[in-house]
Amino acid sequence: MALPERLFYTLDQAGKILNCTIEDLLYFGYAKVCQFCFILPNTDIDLCVVSTTKILSNLTFEKYTRYKYITPYTYLEENTRDHIEAGEIHIDGLLAISPRDSEILYKNFINKKSNDIEISAALIPRVASDVINSTKDYDVMDIYFSEDLSLNLTQLFITNYEMELLKNGGRNIELDAYFGGLNKFNGKANYLNLNNLTSGIDNTPTNLQIEFIRNLLFLKYGEDAIENPRNFIEKNKSPLVRDFELNGLKYPSGKSLEKWLKK
Fold first, then answer.
1. I need a surface site. Which of 19, 172, 173, 213 has the fewest CB within 10 A?
2. d(CA 99, CA 49)
3. How far is it, in rounded angstroms, from Cα 190 to Cα 12?
4. What does the pLDDT look like over 36-49, one tens digit per residue?
5. Are 102 and 32 in contact (CB under 8 A)?
6. Residue scoring higher pLDDT (56 or 6)
7. Other CB atoms within 10 A of residue 254 CB
8. pTM of the model
9. Per-residue three-class SS string for the chain
10. What are phi and psi of 94, to 5 degrees?
């Protein structure tokens, strides 16, 4: 009797099937063509979900609502009042580490520093859009933890979806995010040519992305960041700039940010 297909594989199992080494797999994660997943351990860690419903809520208080986000790999249920008052979050199945954490994992591995990684946030593993079952307007973007999680290589998995992508040349994670979200692309589309990733790309954010940026700036840095974005970034090294530089991240020019927020 033939066994059913596995939903996910350990790195050892994936390497044997794909005829490559663990270092190869970690490199593909570093190159952003492969996503690594893990199972949330049974700890008392608190979770916070960032979703499009938060963005669309406009900070109004309504009755408690139950949101669900279901894929073949993950079941997420959130019961909250407009995401302002803390509610109950239930997650079963897999979560994915971020591309940035995959970079750190590879660097630590090749420099023989560690086979572990500390993560503070996670993503929903990417899938084709036609297998997602979610509450209307509820799209999960990030999941944050109240304390860092330590993961070892033996605790990381590769989904059968990622396996098929690797067999067929891979797909760039950052471009997937740009074109509608890590988990929202068309699974039947042609695989991307990794040698020609940036040709013809318009870098202007979508209206939903702009609204997300506007709300985050307001919540984190106050009204001045919204009303005077150019001065906020360019004058005297703002808190936003310091936060970005502290984490080694790039940030837009004040002119670009002002243009986006006035769109």
1. 19
2. 18
3. 28
4. 999 988 777 788 88
5. yes
6. 6
7. 18
8. 0.65
9. CCCCCCCEEEHHHHHHHHCCCHHHHHHHHHCCCCCCEEECCCCCCCEEEEEHHHHHHCCCCCCCEEEEEECCCEEEEEEEECCCEEEEEEEEEEEECCHHHHHHHHHHHHCCCCCEEEEEEEECCCCCHHHCEECCCCCEEEEEEEEEEEEEHHHCEEEHHHHHHHHCCCCCHHHHHHCCCCCCCCCCCCCCCCCCCCCCCCCCCCHHHHHHHHHHHHHHHCHHHHHCHHHHHHCCCCHHHHHHHHCCCCCCCHHHHHHHHCC
10. -100, 150
At 106 the pLDDT is: 93
Q: Map tokens 């990381």 to a residue.
A: 156
Residue 133 burial (10 A CB sphere; 0-12, 13-18, 19+): exposed
- Residues forming a β-bridge with 9: 158
Residue extents of the structural domains in the chain? 8-178, 207-261
What residues contact 20, with CB distance under 8 A and at least 6 apart? none
In 3D space, the residue among 39, 24, 74 whose CA is nearest the CA of residue 152 turns out to be: 39
- pLDDT tens string 210-251: 666 777 777 677 777 777 777 777 766 677 777 777 666 667
